[in-house]
Amino acid sequence: AGPHPKALSGRVVSAIWWIFAVLLLACYFANFNSVLNSKSKHISITSFEELANQDVIDYGTIANGSTMLFFKNSNNPVYRRIHQHMERKKSYVSTMQEGVRLTQEGNFAFIGEAVSLDLVVARYCKLTRAEELISMRSYSIGAPLGSPLVKNLTIAILQLSESGELTHLREKWWASSCVGSDEAHTSEALNPHDLRGLFLLLGLGLGIGLLLALLELLSRARNRAKDGKVGRKAHMFKSGHRIK
């Protein structure tokens, strides 16, 4: 609202500015809409209680495995509800590979051992693991009672642990191959490089408007100079006529 620019340079600057503003708002609302849709389609579950309190995502574990027996024999009401859900839905899987495949297809959460799930997450970039752990279990190497291997194995494991070799092996084999994938999936905001085309258009338009404004100033100054010369000549002519 208000007086509009009459000069060509002013109209160019005004037009470029409004085009930039409209396109920027369009990009913002399009990104905002995509973020809302993505958040509405994906439910973030961080605990077993949240998993038991929802019906959108199905979940299961390996049939007749140690994890299934844990939920079956647990006295925790949340864990018993999870077991009842898996029994009712028959959402057990026969192997871990099948559970990983169902999870990759979507709308399914696989319940398993943290160490195994960490290895799966390190290999498949689209998967993630909840931070909550039910219990930490230790694993050992079995040997016959009274076997001389027990002492040698114990000493070897202690030496590998103290030398840092076990930590090195875990970092080697459990290292994630998804470099930069977390930032790519979690960063949904508009980045400056996504809008560089708009700012380039704005800068180009303002540059053209500035150039036109300079040309208009030069043209106006030249016209004023010509008018001043004509006015002086006419005044001199009139003055000379009066003298005569």
Automatic annotation (TrEMBL):
Domain of life: Eukaryota
Pfam families: Lig_chan (PF00060)
Keyword Translocase: no
SUPFAM superfamilies assigned to the protein according to its UniProt record, in alphabetical order: Periplasmic binding protein-like II (SSF53850)
Annotated transmembrane regions: 12-31, 198-218
Subcellular location: Cell membrane; Postsynaptic cell membrane
Domain Ionotropic glutamate receptor C-terminal: 9-176
Mode of membrane association: Multi-pass membrane protein
Keyword annotations from UniProtKB, A to Z: Cell membrane, Glycoprotein, Ion channel, Ion transport, Ligand-gated ion channel, Membrane, Postsynaptic cell membrane, Receptor, Synapse, Transmembrane, Transmembrane helix, Transport
Alphabetical list of InterPro entries matching this protein: Iono_Glu_rcpt_met, Ionotropic_Glu_rcpt, Iontro_rcpt_C
Name this polypeptide is given: Ionotropic glutamate receptor C-terminal domain-containing protein
Organism: Goodea atripinnis
